[in-house]
Design a protein that fits this description.
heterodimer; A: alpha/beta; Rossmann fold; 6-stranded mixed sheet; 4-stranded antiparallel sheet; 9 helices; B: mainly alpha; ABC transporter involved in vitamin B12 uptake, BtuC; two-stranded antiparallel sheet; disordered N terminus
């Protein structure tokens, strides 16, 4: 699945859907009655002003938070009550708003930790670490595909912010997920890294579903097939970027401030 | 930028190569010292030291490598001491089987305590382990087989594998040393294994480990049981060395003492707790006969350690200029 090679664009179908998703923290309704369909082979963007509940929706979908009401279905299975690690094993893998790497492991080890699970090499406490070397070929392939080859043996903590995010994506891809949830993958990145990551996302989305929270609207316009706009925990508008960006409610709530 | 990261990446490999070379040299010196030690020191003192060193290393496996502060490790140490003492004295088990019983018993206790504690973090985790170990203390006080306040006395050391007489103190010393080394090798292997990698990743970034699909609680429980079993190995050994098992071994002070040893030696360093245990045991031994109360001295040392050298003896050494020159790294 080398990301650099062009994969065949596959047909879209619903893989992850939420119905009537709600979450309240005490009296505060962070998310209200959100319906969401994420399609295979599509990049779906979740946008909205700060505090709109985008990250909460992410936490609900990945079960890091338990919804107050509503249901979630992943690949035909109801996951409303499934714990987060099980969901990851079912193929729904998320990233975090703050970069999620293991700072004091090398780039190679970061990717290998993910490969350890899919290769059943995570519970052996009697084997030497060198037994993990057989994961190196696959790990190197992933590292190369995101352009981190030169930093292979550097500690993740020593990478620049953008490179950490790239590493995070490589680690996520190591699990070969069916649905990818990326929480602001471009935040804090330089223009060059944004280009790289955009290409990676576009490529991986040919064979899997991607749902991303993103503030950078030119990125959204560039790579996303479908956009959902959230405001105060509710869906304000939905459709492709062209439609959504013309919607007067969206323009006043969100894009208006963007153009001003 | 990538050029910079490349230069940063390269020394990292070289450094760890020097580190492993110096480490090998230090290990050889340490081994030689331990083998020759009975010629210079009182064997019982050395054996006590090794038992507590192993106990502290087992504790450090949990605190240093998993990031869990247990306040109930006396349960495993003292519990195993009781189990070993009982089966050896009452059932006539040979010493090797007696110690094995202690290890298995401690592991089972660890499974139960871990099961309840692992879902909580920080102070709550510590409190649950403390509460459960207080319950176990009370059980030991009341249960018949522990013989209450008297403890299990005059436990026979017996013959190892049926032919090595452990009543000869040189034989006993080398037996203790062998068990200690086996324990250290197990710990070393454990932290440098595929399982150990996952533990490290959990300690580094727990939500990320979950999002990669790891059931974090199970890995923590695994480490907890392993730490309990090794603490049990130390406890069982201790019962044979001193030929008794008493309530002091399961009391909460013992849990506190092992935390002290680990902190003094250096949390998260493989050999730090050995030095921490060495320091505490030596102080206890030399101050036992003096007018000066031991607890005050260890208390002062503890405060100095926390205030001035928080990384512990070995941790500070690794982080010092000499340590770095020798290729060590201290990451915490």
């Amino acid at each position: 699945m080398a990301v650099t090679a062009t994969a065949k664009q596959e047909e879209p179908r619903v893989v992850l859907s939420a119905r009537g998703l709600s979450k309240s923290f005490g009296a505060f309704m962070a998310v209200k009655q959100v319906d969401l369909d994420v399609h295979h082979a599509r990049v779906h963007a979740l946008i909205g002003p700060n505090g709109a509940g985008k990250t909460t929706v992410f936490n609900l979908l990945t079960k890091f938070l338990q919804p107050t009401a509503g249901s979630i279905t992943l690949l035909g299975t109801d996951i409303t009550k499934t714990p987060p690690d099980r969901i990851a094993r079912m193929g729904l893998v998320r990233s975090f708003q703050i970069s999620a790497v293991f700072p004091h492991l090398t780039v190679l080890d970061n990717v290998r930790v993910a490969l350890q699970r899919t290769n059943g090499l995570s519970t052996q406490f009697w084997l030497p670490v060198s037994s993990l070397d057989r994961l190196n070929a696959r790990a190197d392939e992933l590292i190369e595909s995101v352009g981190l080859k030169r930093e292979r043996n550097a500690l993740a903590a020593d990478l620049s912010y953008g490179r950490k995010r790239v590493l995070e994506i490589a680690t996520t891809l190591a699990l070969d997920p069916k649905v990818l949830l990326l929480d602001e993958p471009m935040a804090g990145m330089g223009q060059e890294d944004i280009g790289t990551v955009s290409n990676i996302i576009r490529e991986v989305a040919k064979t899997r579903a991607v749902l991303m929270v993103e503030h950078n609207l030119s990125v959204v316009a560039d790579i996303c097939h479908h956009v959902t706009v959230l405001q105060r925990g509710e869906i304000l508008a939905e459709g492709d970027y062209a439609t959504v960006s013309q919607d007067p409610r969206v323009r006043t709530a969100y894009m208006g401030t963007e153009e001003a | 930028m990538s050029e910079m990261t490349q230069t940063a990446a390269k020394p990292h490999i070289e450094r760890s190569a020097t580190a492993s070379r110096t480490y090998t040299i230090f290990v050889i010196i340490g081994l030689a010292a331990l083998i020759l030690a009975p010629m210079f020191f009182y064997p019982i003192f050395l054996m006590k030291l090794l038992c507590f060193a192993l106990f502290a290393c087992a504790f450090n496996l949990l605190l240093g490598y998993t990031g869990l502060l247990s306040f109930g490790h006396a349960t495993f140490f003292g519990g195993a001491a009781y189990f070993t003492a009982h089966v050896v004295k009452e059932w006539g088990f040979p010493p090797e089987l007696g110690i094995l019983t202690g290890v298995v018993g401690a592991a089972l206790l660890g499974l139960v305590m871990g099961f309840f504690a692992i879902r909580r973090q920080g102070i709550y985790f510590a409190m649950i382990t403390l509460a459960l170990s207080q319950m176990f203390f009370f059980f030991c006080l009341q249960a018949e087989f522990t013989q209450g306040e008297d403890g299990i006395q005059s436990v026979p050391r017996g013959h190892l594998f049926g032919f090595i007489d452990l009543n000869i103190s040189t034989n006993m010393y080398y037996f203790v040393l062998a068990v200690f080394l086996i324990g250290m090798v197990i710990i070393w292997r454990f932290i440098n294994s595929p399982f150990g990698m996952i533990l490290r990743s959990i300690r580094e970034n727990e939500p990320r480990a979950i999002s990669l699909g790891y059931s974090v609680a199970r890995y923590k429980l695994g480490a907890f049981v392993m730490s309990a079993a090794l603490a049990g190995l130390a406890g069982g050994l201790k019962a044979l060395v001193f030929q008794f098992a008493t309530l002091t071994d399961v009391a909460w002070q013992m849990s506190g003492e092992v935390i002290l040893m680990t902190l003094l030696g250096g949390i998260g360093t493989l050999i730090g707790p050995i030095f921490g245990a060495g320091l505490v045991v030596t102080l206890q031994n030399y101050l036992a006969t003096s007018q000066f109360p031991v607890t005050i001295v260890t208390g002062v040392i503890f405060m100095v350690c926390v205030l001035i050298f928080r990384r512990g003896i070995i941790g500070e050494f690794y982080a010092s200029r000499l340590g770095r020159k020798l290729g060590f790294e201290h990451r915490r």
